[in-house]
Amino acid sequence: MGKRVLIIFIIMTFLTFAQESKNLINEGILYLKAEEYEKAINTFNQLSKTSSENSDVYYYLGEAYFRKGEIDKAISNLQKAININPQNSSYYYTLALIYLSQNNKNEAIDALNKVISISPLSFHGKNAQKLKDEIEKSEKEIQIAKKWEQLEIEEKKRKEEEKKEIEGKTTFEGQITQEEKFLPHQLPEMSPSIETPESEKKLIPISTIIKRIKFGTEEVRKKASNEIIVYPSSEIEKVIDEILSIIENTDQPEIKRNLIIAAGKVYTDEVIDMLLKIIKDEKELFEIRIVALDIIGNIKSEKVVEELRNALVGMVSKREKEREEARKNIQDINQKLDDLTARKIVLNSETQNLNNRISQIDNQLNIFPEEFQFPQGAPGTAPGGRRPLTDKETKKLLEEKRTIEEKIKTNNEEIVKIDKELVDLTEQKRKYEELLELRKRKIDISGIGASAVVVQLEEQSTIPKEFIFPSPDFSYTQRETDEQKNEIIFVVKLINALANLRDTNSLSIIKKAWREFGVPGLRSYYYIALGKLGEYRSIDFMVSRLKENYPQGNKEEEIYIRANIIEVLGEYLKQNYDEEIKGLIEYLAEEGEYPLIISAAKKVISSLPKEEVVNQ
Description:
The protein has about 625 residues and is mainly α. About 70% of the residues lie in helices and about 0% in strands. The chain has a two-stranded antiparallel sheet. Strands 3-4 form a two-stranded antiparallel ribbon. The longest helix has about 60 residues, at about 300-365.
């Protein structure tokens, strides 16, 4: 008896302790949500002393330390959670995110590999694979960019040496071999027009690269397409026809993108026509259309300007047509929804009646209801006034029951199909309604460069927005947005290109395009475009932007934006003198934080009419 009491006491004590631990975990999570990280840390530290085998305690403790900025402690506690429960993929996924926040990509990839090996088909597994692919792709692009940069440095050095050598020689009738000029319409970041220096003369024949791209396995083709980018224009020109043919026939985005970049070094009419065709192709991926636009966007020719303007008109017209079709489709969908709902109601009612009839038959097959009872003592009745069913009556009822059950099964199958159709139609209707609600943007973009990301997205999520990392018990889904994002970037780049080309005929369509596709994160590009086309509605915004702190991390795009703002302000000053704006630009010319900013500001100052400044 005493042992039984002791066992019960131990069980009750354990259950009480477990409940207290659960309550403390919930309390710590609430502190995390309220951003009271010190209290959260104290709570989970207290738990770690009494629940040292609970891996979730260390997980949340690591999360709290991360939010507080104590990275080493965050990693240490995540490792403790992993040591206790090494099969929890979410722990590794969160650890990978922490490593990424510190730009420790190798450690992050190791953690992501763990996630993929533990649960490749889970939410964390799929996202880990996607994140890993993005990291490796980014690293590859960085290496290519570094190689280009080194090539440019070496080329510049070589040309300087050749220039000195030429200057030291006497020539006849001024005839000297001119070095290949950099075409002003080419984009350095996309297609550097440089000849391969001596240190890179050992490149394999470009004809071999072309063969690999045409006939190799997928991996070989991709690798060869990456290699062809570094070849000089003189080599690209030898195989340009084959490159154009491959571009037209390949369905591999990475290969097509690299070949477009390579072809962009050779500005023949055929290449320009190919680029314009890609830009206008509505079936082409926007990431490919963006690459083509980046290469051709600064060519100052009437044909290019007209085609880019037409491409923007096409984007706006397509959106307007889609919206008109959306209105009609919503009406059609509403009618279908009403018809299906009515049909479902009829089927449910019919099924209910059929089920009631089955109940009646079941009663008849067992005990007659009152209407089938006969007077006590009637001929052929059983005791109690019940007449037994004949074989014929029984068979008839059983046959009727089977027929009814088949009908109920058919009705239920039809109801399931109707429910699926209702779900599909409701989703279609939601998408059409989103298209009509221009002011309720579902997506925002951080920029138009390679590092642009979605910064705002409507999610279907059970996770409180306050949480940075996915909790072990949480899961959510996120819609694919790459094409949606790239479509916006493509339109804004078209606007940007037309503004750089000073195509004032595009002003009205640019305004329409912004109403259709504009998002808050890219508003600066729109204001700059208006300014370059002579409409200075946002001068105060631009001045304010120049006085803001530079963002953390990648600053290249922000520097580009500010340099363009300075250019617009310079054009504004020529028409509307403003002492404060002039003073700001003079300050940036002297103390700008970056060479591009200083150069842009000096260019503005030197272009201002001196006599006009004096007269003000």
